[in-house]
Amino acid sequence: MAELSLNSPEVQIALLVVAATLVLLVILKLFSGGKRGSAVLLVGPCNGGKTTLFYRLKDGSTELGTVASMQENEGIVQVRNDKDRVVGSVRVMDLPGHPRLRSKLEQYLKDASAVVLVLDSVDLTPNKTEAAEDLFEVLTHTTVARRRTPVLLACNKADLETQAHSVDFCRRTIEKQLDTMRKTRLALGGEAGRSLAALGKPDKPLQLAALRSPIAVCEISAEKGEVAEVMRFLAKLV
Amino acid sequence: MLDYVLAFERGGAILWALQFTSLRHNPLEAINALIRGCLLEERLGDNTFTFNPKSGAPQTLKWTFHNGLGLVFVAVYQKTLSLLYVDELLSNVKEEFVNVYKPGQRGYRQFDETFNRLLRDAESRADAAKKQPVMRSGPPANAKQGTGSQAVGAQAKKGTQAGKDASGDDDAGAARKGAANGTVGNTSDGSAGGEDGDEDNVRAFDVSKLPKGMAGRGTRGVRGRPVPGAGSAKVSDTGKKKEEAPAAKVKKARNWNTMLSGGKGDTPTRIDYTEDGDGPGTSDMDLISGASASATEDEGRGVGVSRMDVEEDEYDDSEFEDDEDLNNGAGGRGGSGAGASGSAAAAPKKQGLLASFVSSLAMNVVGKAALSRADVEPALAEMKRKLMERNVAEEIAAQVCDSVGRNLEGQRLAGFTGVAAFVRNAFEEALSGILNKRSVDVLLDIKKSQARGKPYVIVFCGVNGVGKSTNLAKIAYWLGSHNIKVMIAACDTFRAGAVEQLKTHCARLRVPLYERGYEKDPAKVAYEAVRQAEKDGVHVVLVDTAGRMQDNQPLMRALSTLISLNNPNLVLFVGEALVGNDAVDQLTKFNKSLSDLAPTTAGAGGPGEGTGAVGRGQADGSALTRRHGGVIDGIVLTKFDTIDEKVGAALSMVYTSGAPVMFVGCGQTYVDLKKLNVKSVVKSLLK
């Protein structure tokens, strides 16, 4: 084999190829890095209407309905402002509500730019513990607490007027649940790695609007397409 | 014939649906029940799923996957019909639909015609098959399957042999019972055709088994294995004992004060007949001597913080081991991928960059088009062997492997991963999913019933010798350390020394004990204990019951009377981690007996579908919902410190019952109680 020195053409070509590859990789990483790590998550208990909301936001269609999701849906939503002009786009991720797939919530929360908790205002009471637990997990997640990620509580199925509970009722139910949970979890003391401080001081009853990163509550109807509140929430992110 | 057919994505969006009959309930309810009860529970090995709507006849659902595109096709029809062509029809539909499918499009009206054509073909083929003289090749039920699909026929063979005992289980709750139940829906119902002779045989066969149910098997287990003597012996024993009770002399309670320092008591005459020592032969010995030789009442408090409240350290260094394995596994594929196995930490990162680079350029350097069953078979077999080595019950291991295999078929391998690593990932997800159940937040529920002024009742049940009383004491200690007032109810009125054992615990924990001695009706004792607790303002009542074998019908009936009379908020099944294949048997029989043998046939054993407070008529409406359709709400896994890696019993128990593991007992002192660490269990299972 000939002497390998930096001046020989083979070595120079080889070095050039390696450098080009590295540059290409870096460029690609930069491009993909922009996409990664900034998604709006749709979370909540089963049957809340997350997938319906997802499709309604994405392309406004919910033709045939949905069934319980077995895996997450991901898509880009065009955000429109009140005058119906497109102001930007966000990546939205719809996570399944089934408890078995709940573990995915942890890993996605790390990259979340905002969280929308979708509640079923008709069937609120049987699901309130699950909803409160989800909200608890979201709020006490270290990244969420640190970044003060905005959270929206969307009470879905408002179109069923007679059966749906009011926004106030939903808010108060969730607040009460969270309050109790805060007390018991604090007592356990085994919640290392969670920022319980994000839930405020335990001596005062919990108020969603009074937390460090305030949580807004609204009512929507994904079925009927009345999702203006969510759209406004997304518009603030863009 | 068919009620409803639909195709949907795994993400939840319905792509195409066709309704044939108008049903009183929303057809989507059945689909949601299927997803929550079967597809997400890794029970893909079952061929069918039965759904009982609130109004209307039960329906059977059959399904098929297209894993490559992430689509699911489901057909729903009345359970009383046995349609033989559904499997074949579904696979044809799958093939045709893939041609029409465009990702992102929803609504395929044009597919209706294609489907109707396929349906007509399938129906005519089935009719033609029925008209032909049927060959008797195998058990009679096999003939009823027609020539339709091989898979269903093979399953029927398996089904009838194992289905002898499953025939009695042919109700909704048993849909979760697994492979053996696959085609029972078909065999025991009448159907058209000229096989009346066979039908009579089959039906007579079924009917003769039905009334016997559990009692018919008596001392024999599920697969005809004789249960080690305890079953029949126990039955005759308790029978005799009940007769002799009035004649026998009254048992004098033993005074244990001699064990604690000071205090007068009877000097124990020899009670321990082992060679070495004298003293109580129960596991209490360790408890008493473990703390200190001169155990006093004060010792009970100062033993330390219960391990439930201590966060376990996450072991991060083991991740490097996993990555090395991954690299070795992927060694055969992708030269640069394997070549980058220089240092364990750098290798995965480099692999990630390269893989993402390659895939972002839309190049699939290595990796086949789609995985076929044959590709994953060896990896699955290896996994099954590994699981069984880790003490997972054989049935459960087979079902989990089958279900994961079905999920993997047709999926594409990512750029540089090997088959083994891919399968291993799928297993990790599946096992984590099974073990990661939403468990009841006990403290929260206790606070809720505190607010209502009613005591929170927890009943411990299980077979003999698994550690009920010991773990009950540990839980009492843990609750006490959270300032919750506990009372223990001694409803084990059978075993000698049970009440004394609890007396000792109560003395050390400074917790009131409600006992009425021996030979009393446990259900009444529990009832009175709860009333007493309400009067005294006690928050939690822990009810200890006698150990009983799962086959022992009178004892199971007694237990279910106790449960239905007292409406406990939580029924915990205590199982030891050392148990092997018997775990499945124990749990199924417990769940089944407790619901079947309840005095009023309250639908406690109804099918668990999503949320909704089904169950034992809780007046206080606590947040406990019967998500898994059985009476058992949680599992306590004991003797966890005696097994190192063989943690499979946890998986078997959770899979069989659907209940979460709420406590893990890992020692014999009061602090040895912890939560189940799912990550470490999955790691041990797959190591």
From TrEMBL, chain A:
Subcellular locations according to the entry: Endoplasmic reticulum membrane
Bilayer topology term: Single-pass membrane protein
Domain of life the protein comes from: Eukaryota
Alphabetical keyword list: Endoplasmic reticulum, ER-Golgi transport, GTP-binding, Lipoprotein, Membrane, Myristate, Nucleotide-binding, Receptor, Transmembrane, Transmembrane helix, Transport
GO cellular component, one term: signal recognition particle receptor complex
Entry coiled-coil feature ranges: none
Database matches in PROSITE patterns: ARF
An example Gene Ontology biological process: protein targeting to ER
UniProt-listed SUPFAM superfamilies: P-loop containing nucleoside triphosphate hydrolases
InterPro entries (alphabetical): P-loop_NTPase (IPR027417), Small_GTPase_ARF (IPR024156), SRP_receptor_beta_su (IPR019009)
Family: Belongs to the small GTPase superfamily. Arf family.
Protein name: Signal recognition particle receptor subunit beta
TrEMBL record, chain B:
Highest rank taxon of the organism: Eukaryota
GO biological process, one term: SRP-dependent cotranslational protein targeting to membrane
Keywords carried by this UniProt record: Endoplasmic reticulum, GTP-binding, Membrane, Nucleotide-binding, Receptor
Mitochondrion listed as a keyword: no
GO function terms (MF aspect): GTP binding; GTPase activity; signal recognition particle binding
Topology class, membrane: Peripheral membrane protein
Positions of the SRP54-type proteins GTP-binding domain: 660-673
GO CC list: endoplasmic reticulum membrane; signal recognition particle receptor complex
Record's compositionally biased regions (Gly residues): 329-340, 603-615
Location in the cell: Endoplasmic reticulum membrane
Biased composition (Acidic residues): 310-326
Record field: transmembrane: none
Region described as Disordered: 124-344, 600-623
UniProt feature, compositional bias: Basic and acidic residues: 237-246
Family from the record: Belongs to the GTP-binding SRP family.
Protein name: SRP54-type proteins GTP-binding domain-containing protein
Organism of provenance: Chlamydomonas reinhardtii (Chlamydomonas smithii)
Organism taxonomic ancestry: Eukaryota, Viridiplantae, Chlorophyta, core chlorophytes, Chlorophyceae
